[in-house]
Amino acid sequence: METRKTTPRCHPDNFSQVIYRLKTDTRARIANPNHGTKKYDLYYLEFKKLYNFTGHTWCKKAALLLNAMLDNGVFPNAFIFGQIIYKLCTFKFTPYLLQIFDIAVARKLTNTYIYNWMLVAIENSATPNVAFALELCKQAQSNGIADSYTYKNLIDVIAGNDSPDIELAVSVLESAKAHSRCNRHTYGSLIFAMAKSPAPDTDLALKLIKEAGITLPTLTENMRLDMRGLSFGYAYFTLKTQLAELLQHPDRDQLTIMYSVYKAHKNKPFKSYCGATDAINKILREIEDYGLTCQKHQTTIGTLTITLHKKQNNYTSRLFSQYQRPATVSESSEDKGWRPTRPGG
Asked: Which conformational region is residue 263 in: left (phi greater than 0), alpha (psi within -120 to 50 degrees), or beta?
């Protein structure tokens, strides 16, 4: 096939201009990996070589490759679009990301990988757009390409708000269960959202944790609680339930917590939570809000001793039993516009 020259208005390393070419080029043939074309194999491998490049450097090199593909009459397929969306999501180049996604949808080149990374991009935005995430999940669901991570990422978007909508998150979990797309990661995201909410429902959380097959650590005889390796949600409900146990023993007022200390890498693209540390801080704030004072003593890195001063005996009933459970799935779906669908219906 004869190589077509790049139009003068499109600089070969300008990513915004190559997006315009992708929108308007109707002559290039979509690369099909099933045909084993040498052109496709070449460009696919070239895109994989860009994995270690970051930011605008990646955009320039990707623009050169995309222009070369279009010049040779080859249009990117779903796998290459998936790589592009993954990198744009990593760099948080939202305007480019949305335009590339729209092109993939218009050309019917979306797959599970693309939808999942779009949800991750929404989750890591400054203000996660839950309505847009719901729409994407519905599209993936209607196309039959929603997997367990699609539902997990949707719950993560809901949890990304300052006050997560737990009723909506529970309805998403129920939809994932109905489609047999639910696993421990899906439950973990919901537990995280519940722990982050202003009024966590401990009873419902413990029920879901048991349903997921997770066993929370308990206090040892020497009043030590090992929370190493726990995420924020599981660490929060572990500490909360074990504090309730501690308060039932009038002769015991001290426990020692062992937890993991994570250091965020400067090159890590997404926000990360030091699970146990955040859980401890949230629990201690709640203790102070309910009039029960405590003292912290940091013995070594990753080990913390908490001493409770039991001035009030109603801490357990006030902090652990005052919240109402979220509405049922059917009630929450009607209120929030999310209607879990059953497989085949």
From this structure: beta
